[in-house]
Amino acid sequence: MLEETVEDYQLSEKMSVNELVSQMEKAWGFTAGKLALGVKILEKMIADVECVKFLSFTANLVATGVRGILRELVRRKLVDVIVTTCGALDHDIARCWRKYYRGNFLMNDKMLYDQGINRLGNVLVPNESYGKIIEEKMNFLLESMWNEGFREFSTKELCQEIGKRICNETSILYWAWKNNIPVYVPSITDGAVGYQIWLFSQDHKIKIDLLKDEKELNDIVFDAKKTGALIIGGGVSKHHVIWWNQFKEGLDYAIYISTAVEWDGSLSGARPREAISWGKIKGEADRIMIEGDASIILPIMISSLIERISKV
Fold first, then answer.
1. Counting C-beta atoms within 10 Å of the first and last residue's C-beta, which end of the chain has fewer, N or C?
2. Model confidence over 93-152: pLDDT tens digits?
3. What is the mean pLDDT of the chain?
4. The sheet that has 51-57: what strands, in order across it?
5. Stretch (H or E) spanning 214
């Protein structure tokens, strides 16, 4: 038990992010030690050529600069499969063409509403930067697809077409399409993109084939020798990854980043140890739960990871 000592940080002017993270492992200090271990597990997971790597994240992060971190994981092909929410599509499309703005948590929300500005935490999203541009781009996309004979498509196929036709190189979906990384959205109707699909369906007979997505996820999991996941936040995107992996005896690697608590019994707050009881994560898996705000934790972790793998 008393073999590894706590050591002080040794800072220098030219210290890299990876050097700082490497010192966290010895400096310890609560969440810092978990962050350092999380990077080690990520590095090991990515180096494992037998492992299919899942990335799961919630929409709120795509409204912030963390979009660039997620995009980099996809652009560098460090993940193989993405599971996310409809809101992530909304923000990814919108931010290709319009700006979001910095605000704060304590603004006058009635005043914001009167001025046509939506608040997402401390991010400000004008109507012109969200609903209007998403409606414009999705109408163009759906009309184009309809004219080309699309009548039924899965969420994976939809995301491919979004990335290909109405996004640019700033986008997560663009790079997912470019690198042939499938994106699945189990809750596709829960957002502006889903609403536009429903609206279009009122005078066009189109269907979303969710079961086609599920068949593909089934095949991905069962064909994999190993699986691992970086799971950011909770909700349906988190659960869909661990749900499918329980049928293959669980994930071999799992990195959770979340601010959710576990004492309310929520899936979002459930720790990896709870997932072991369901068979969603293997008992011997390399796993870590990092409690904290992903807008702080993820840029540090992925910057350190990229420096490490670039040296290999």
1. N
2. 999 999 999 999 999 999 999 999 999 999 999 999 999 999 999 999 999 999 999 999
3. 97
4. 183-184, 81-83, 51-57, 226-232, 251-258, 281-291
5. helix 210-223
d(C-alpha 261, C-alpha 238), whole Å:
15
Beta strand extents in the chain (DSSP E only): 51-57, 81-83, 101-102, 117-120, 123-126, 152-153, 183-184, 207-208, 226-232, 251-258, 281-291
Q: Which amino acid is at 167?
A: C
The size of the chain, in residues, is 312
Bridge pairing between strands 152-153 and 51-57: unpaired
Cβ neighbours, 10 Å, residue 72 = 17
Predicted model pTM: 0.97
Classify the C-alpha dihedral 154-146-135-167 as positive or negative: positive
Positions marked catalytic: 280
Q: What's the Cα-to-Cα distance from 139 to each of 68, 96, 277, rounded to whole Å? A: 26, 16, 45
The whole-angstrom separation of Cα 235 and Cα 120 is 17
For residues 232 and 57, is the Cβ–Cβ distance under 8 A?
Answer: yes
Write the secondary structure of 59-86 as one string of H (helix), E (strand) and C (coil): HHHHHCCHHHHHHHHHHCCCCCEEECCH
Residue 1 confidence (pLDDT): 86
The percent helix, strand, coil of the chain (3-state, each to 5) is 50, 15, 30
Residue carrying the six token digits 């890299």: 16
